[in-house]
Amino acid sequence: MRWTNLGEHTVYENPWLRVNLADVELPDGRHLDHYVIRQRPVALATVVNDADEVLLLWRHRFITGTWSYELAAGVVEDGEEPADAAAREMLEETGWRPGPLRELMMVEPQHGLTDARH
Q: How far apart (Å, rounded) are the C-alpha atoms in residues 22 and 40?
Protein backbone atom coordinates (compact mmCIF):
# COMPACT_ATOMS: atom_id res chain seq x y z
CA MET A 1 0.00 0.00 0.00
CA ARG A 2 2.29 2.73 -1.29
CA TRP A 3 1.47 6.43 -1.38
CA THR A 4 2.89 8.25 -4.40
CA ASN A 5 4.14 11.84 -4.25
CA LEU A 6 3.21 13.33 -7.63
CA GLY A 7 4.92 16.64 -6.88
CA GLU A 8 5.14 19.37 -4.32
CA HIS A 9 5.64 23.09 -4.08
CA THR A 10 6.99 25.30 -1.31
CA VAL A 11 4.50 27.34 0.72
CA TYR A 12 6.95 28.63 3.36
CA GLU A 13 10.73 28.64 3.76
CA ASN A 14 13.37 29.88 6.21
CA PRO A 15 17.03 28.92 6.88
CA TRP A 16 16.02 25.89 9.02
CA LEU A 17 13.06 24.37 7.22
CA ARG A 18 10.78 24.40 4.22
CA VAL A 19 7.05 23.62 4.27
CA ASN A 20 5.84 22.04 1.05
CA LEU A 21 2.38 21.02 -0.14
CA ALA A 22 2.46 17.64 -1.88
CA ASP A 23 -0.04 16.13 -4.29
CA VAL A 24 -0.27 12.56 -3.01
CA GLU A 25 -1.99 9.67 -4.76
CA LEU A 26 -3.30 6.97 -2.42
CA PRO A 27 -3.28 3.27 -3.39
CA ASP A 28 -7.00 3.43 -4.23
CA GLY A 29 -6.39 6.28 -6.72
CA ARG A 30 -7.69 9.11 -4.56
CA HIS A 31 -5.60 12.26 -4.22
CA LEU A 32 -4.96 14.38 -1.17
CA ASP A 33 -2.94 17.46 -0.30
CA HIS A 34 -0.34 16.64 2.33
CA TYR A 35 1.93 19.15 4.05
CA VAL A 36 5.56 18.05 4.26
CA ILE A 37 8.25 19.70 6.37
CA ARG A 38 11.69 19.47 4.74
CA GLN A 39 14.47 20.02 7.26
CA ARG A 40 18.23 20.08 7.30
CA PRO A 41 19.87 17.19 9.14
CA VAL A 42 20.40 17.56 12.89
CA ALA A 43 23.33 16.15 14.86
CA LEU A 44 23.07 15.28 18.56
CA ALA A 45 25.73 14.36 21.08
CA THR A 46 26.30 13.68 24.72
CA VAL A 47 29.23 12.97 26.99
CA VAL A 48 29.41 9.77 29.03
CA ASN A 49 31.98 9.70 31.83
CA ASP A 50 33.77 6.75 33.45
CA ALA A 51 30.89 6.36 35.93
CA ASP A 52 28.43 6.00 33.01
CA GLU A 53 26.86 9.36 33.84
CA VAL A 54 25.39 11.21 30.87
CA LEU A 55 25.56 14.97 30.32
CA LEU A 56 22.10 16.34 29.50
CA LEU A 57 20.70 19.86 29.25
CA TRP A 58 17.70 20.95 31.36
CA ARG A 59 15.68 23.33 29.18
CA HIS A 60 12.36 25.05 28.96
CA ARG A 61 10.70 24.91 25.54
CA PHE A 62 8.13 27.61 24.91
CA ILE A 63 6.42 25.61 22.14
CA THR A 64 5.18 22.93 24.55
CA GLY A 65 5.46 24.99 27.73
CA THR A 66 7.50 22.22 29.35
CA TRP A 67 10.90 21.59 30.92
CA SER A 68 12.83 18.53 29.80
CA TYR A 69 16.22 16.90 29.66
CA GLU A 70 17.79 17.12 26.20
CA LEU A 71 20.89 16.15 24.29
CA ALA A 72 23.03 18.90 22.81
CA ALA A 73 21.86 19.25 19.21
CA GLY A 74 21.86 21.49 16.19
CA VAL A 75 21.66 21.74 12.43
CA VAL A 76 24.43 20.23 10.31
CA GLU A 77 25.79 23.12 8.26
CA ASP A 78 26.41 22.75 4.51
CA GLY A 79 29.63 20.80 3.95
CA GLU A 80 29.90 19.84 7.63
CA GLU A 81 30.16 16.25 8.81
CA PRO A 82 27.50 15.21 11.36
CA ALA A 83 30.17 14.31 13.95
CA ASP A 84 31.74 17.76 13.59
CA ALA A 85 28.32 19.39 13.98
CA ALA A 86 27.61 17.30 17.08
CA ALA A 87 30.95 18.28 18.63
CA ARG A 88 30.37 21.95 17.78
CA GLU A 89 26.90 21.90 19.35
CA MET A 90 28.19 20.13 22.47
CA LEU A 91 30.81 22.85 22.95
CA GLU A 92 28.38 25.70 22.21
CA GLU A 93 25.60 24.42 24.47
CA THR A 94 27.51 22.91 27.40
CA GLY A 95 31.08 24.22 27.30
CA TRP A 96 32.38 20.62 27.08
CA ARG A 97 34.66 19.67 24.20
CA PRO A 98 33.92 16.01 23.49
CA GLY A 99 36.59 13.46 22.72
CA PRO A 100 36.21 11.01 19.86
CA LEU A 101 32.59 10.59 18.79
CA ARG A 102 30.95 7.49 17.43
CA GLU A 103 27.64 7.20 15.69
CA LEU A 104 25.03 5.28 17.64
CA MET A 105 21.99 5.60 15.41
CA MET A 106 20.05 7.68 12.93
CA VAL A 107 16.38 8.38 13.55
CA GLU A 108 13.59 10.12 11.68
CA PRO A 109 11.35 11.10 14.61
CA GLN A 110 8.26 12.19 12.65
CA HIS A 111 8.59 10.52 9.27
CA GLY A 112 4.88 10.93 8.55
CA LEU A 113 5.32 14.72 8.51
CA THR A 114 8.99 15.60 8.09
CA ASP A 115 12.16 14.23 6.50
CA ALA A 116 14.24 15.40 9.49
CA ARG A 117 17.17 13.08 10.15
CA HIS A 118 18.67 13.15 13.61
A: 18
